[in-house]
UniProtKB/TrEMBL annotation:
This is Cupin domain-containing protein. Pfam families: Cupin_2. InterPro entries: Cupin_2 (IPR013096), OryJ/VirC-like (IPR047142), RmlC-like_jellyroll (IPR014710), RmlC_Cupin_sf (IPR011051). CDD domains: cupin_BLL6423-like (cd02231). Residues 116-169 form the Cupin type-2 domain. It comes from Nonomuraea fuscirosea. It comes from the Bacteria.
Length: 180
């Protein structure tokens, strides 16, 4: 049975007592520009320094990629390349839909190299289900299977599901500053 992402958030009452403030299933977001995929935006922190305490916190999930010091955590279910639906529709309309549902996501993709992108983030990617291939800019690939963790350090890359079933990844994105 596939994993169903669920968000549980803790907080504090004004007197400091710990409480559960959220416990709910995550809702998937699909966009035609990345057919067959489901994004589950779980939580994020504002750019800068994260803080904790009794002040209620709300998630910061947009823009999609955090700025320096910000964070995001999401699940992404990738359809197998062989069964992903074709891109249907006008590319401008698909881009507009993605910009509306997942602001900032498509800004990093290279129009002449499908799937290739570079972000100013350190990403921890954990394969939970299926298998996913990580391709680097020189064409080298590595296959991730459940339990594999990849640390993506702002390099140019693309993801491919060459398997025969969906792959589920959990990504933690930490906004960074590029040193060159």
């Amino acid at each position: 049975m596939p994993i169903q992402p669920r968000l549980i958030v803790t907080g504090r009452e004004p007197d400091g007592t710990s409480v559960f403030v959220t416990d709910r299933p995550a809702e998937p977001i699909s966009v035609g520009a990345i057919p067959g995929s489901e994004f589950y935006l779980m939580w994020g922190t504002e750019d800068g320094t994260a803080t904790v305490g009794t002040k209620p916190r709300q998630p910061t999930t947009f823009p999609f990629f955090p700025g320096a010091g910000g964070t995001r955590i999401l699940f992404l279910r990738w359809a197998p390349d062989s069964s992903a639906p074709e891109h249907l529709g006008d590319p401008a309309e698909l881009g507009a839909e993605a910009a509306a549902k997942l602001p900032g996501l498509m800004d990093v993709f290279e129009p002449d190299n499908p799937g290739m992108h570079t972000t100013d983030t350190v990403d921890y990617g954990i394969c939970l289900e299926g298998e996913l291939h990580l391709e680097l800019d020189d064409g080298q690939e590595v296959k991730l299977t459940p339990g594999a963790v990849v640390v993506q350090q702002g390099t140019r890359h693309a993801w491919h599901n060459r398997g025969d079933r969906p792959a589920l990844m959990c990504y933690v994105l930490i906004g960074a500053e590029r040193d060159s």
